[in-house]
From TrEMBL:
InterPro entries: HTH_ArsR_DNA-bd_dom, WH-like_DNA-bd_sf, WH_DNA-bd_sf. GO terms for molecular function: DNA binding; DNA-binding transcription factor activity. Keywords: DNA-binding. This is DNA-binding transcriptional ArsR family regulator. Pfam families: HTH_20. SUPFAM superfamilies: Winged helix' DNA-binding domain (SSF46785). Coiled coil: none annotated. The keyword RNA-binding does not apply. Residues 6-99 form the HTH arsR-type domain. The keyword Cytoplasm does not apply. SMART domains: HTH_ARSR.
Length: 103
């Protein structure tokens, strides 16, 4: 299986984070993770085709928003909250608050 790569904190780029969050499916996943849900590759987007879900996971992981870890047949996901708050203080809270207000 291919290795899951994640950017180092100092390599997380604002434009990549904002582009990833600009998609409503990905923003929804991040909002669920921020709310404390525990998600894996099958529970996060059950109604999305596997190829589309894989694309969303790759974008979220490579942008630095998400950490993925293989656990048996599943890939679990965690929000990189501490790293994001360190790199861009207040950004994630601002985006999630704005998204909740417009929902």
């Amino acid at each position: 299986m291919p290795q899951l790569t994640h950017p180092e904190v100092d390599r997380i780029r604002l434009d990549h984070v904002l582009a990833a969050l600009g998609n409503p499916v990905r923003l929804g996943v991040i909002a669920r993770l921020a709310a404390g849900e525990h998600l894996n590759c099958t529970t996060a987007l059950p109604d999305v085709p596997k190829s589309s879900a894989s694309h969303h996971w790759r974008v979220l992981r490579e942008s630095g928003l998400l950490h993925q870890q293989r656990e048996g047949r599943f890939i679990t996901m965690t929000l990189r909250r501490r790293e994001l708050d360190e790199r861009f203080p207040g950004l994630l809270d601002a985006v999630l608050t704005a998204a909740a207000e417009t929902a």
